[in-house]
Write a structure and sequence with these properties.
By secondary structure, the protein is an alpha/beta fold. The protein is built from eight helices and ten strands. The protein has two domains: 212 residues, HUPs (Rossmann fold); 71 residues, no CATH class. An eight-stranded mixed beta sheet has the order 5-4-3-2-1-6-8-7. Strands 9-10 form a two-stranded antiparallel ribbon. Helix 1 crosses helix 2. The protein is globular, with a radius of gyration of 18 Å.
């Protein structure tokens, strides 16, 4: 097997192990390239069917094209789609764009808190009704304690400290220093009751691996990653007030791969356009300790 086949096989194994080991399982879908590759792998792992729900935390500040893309493929691939949001913070305008929070405070509120309370079932969830094509507001529901995430170790420093099966406490707080060893493909999947576990099937993939796999598999990726005629494109997707496009004329997957292999982005951090990463030297790790994706 070549490298892509090897990491694909490993990721599919992790997904199947997660499904075998955890009853209350959900996969996070940010609509970006990594989580979309993860979704593609899940469909391969379970023969075209995703046997657990997908969850998207909607900050209300995503580019509208991202929401349209999410709903198109949720309907086309018959996904059990759940959406969560922090209604209270949004109603009170306690956000960075409204000037009432810093970028990191906004992320903590609209992402970390929304994720924590949507996973627990304490806050309402919006569930896609495939008959009507609309989202229906629901209250309550089971608490998800196994969460599949498309994080990669090379993407950002705090992610490199994760494990394939990374435990959190009952509040989703992450103790970086208390992570199980994972040696020779031996994974700990039996945790004490009340433990929340984040599962990272893409942990050892690189940005280049992701794009090479997208190219090989023909995965339909949102076109915000491509130059649409103005000489810019997004390299990493987030909320539009805090995410800037990069200067690039790459208009398709092979051109992005060329930029990463030896071109202008070969030695430039992927999240260099994410302004919240720059606000505090260890801000993103602090957010991740409190449940951030």
């Amino acid at each position: 097997m070549d490298q892509l086949e090897t990491i694909e096989s490993q990721s599919i194994f992790i997904l199947r192990e997660a499904y075998r080991s955890f009853k209350s399982l959900v996969m996070l879908w940010s609509i970006g390239k990594d989580s979309t590759v993860l979704l593609w792998l899940a469909r391969k792992a379970f023969f075209g069917h995703v046997p657990f729900p997908l969850m998207h935390i909607d900050t209300s500040y995503k580019v509208p094209d991202m929401i349209a893309y999410r709903d198109r493929f949720a309907r086309e691939w018959k996904l059990n789609m759940i959406v969560g949001r922090n209604e209270k913070a949004l109603a009170a305008n306690d956000t960075f764009p409204d000037g009432r929070a810093t970028r990191l405070e906004c992320c903590a509120s609209l992402k970390s808190e929304a994720l924590k309370h949507t996973l627990s079932g304490e806050w309402p969830r919006w569930v896609l009704n495939h008959e009507t094509g609309r989202y229906v507001r629901q209250t309550g529901g089971e608490a998800f304690t196994g969460v599949i995430v498309g994080a990669r170790a090379d993407e950002e420093g705090s992610r490199s400290k994760e494990r394939y099966f990374s435990p959190r406490d009952e509040h989703s707080d992450w103790d970086v220093g208390d992570q199980p060893p994972e040696l020779w493909n031996q994974f700990k999947t039996d945790f004490a009751p009340g433990t929340h576990v984040r599962i990272h099937p893409l942990l050892d993939w690189t940005e280049l691996n992701i794009w090479e796999y997208i190219d090989r598999e023909g995965i339909p990726i949102i076109d915000l990653y491509f130059d649409r005629g103005d000489g810019t494109r997004y390299r990493s997707l987030g909320c539009f007030p805090c995410t800037s496009p990069v200067q690039s004329t790459a208009a398709n997957v092979p051109e992005i791969i060329e930029e990463l292999r030896g071109g202008k982005f070969a030695n430039i951090a992927e999240r260099s356009g994410r302004e919240q990463d720059k606000e505090d030297g260890n801000g993103l790790e602090a957010l991740r300790r409190e449940g951030y994706m």
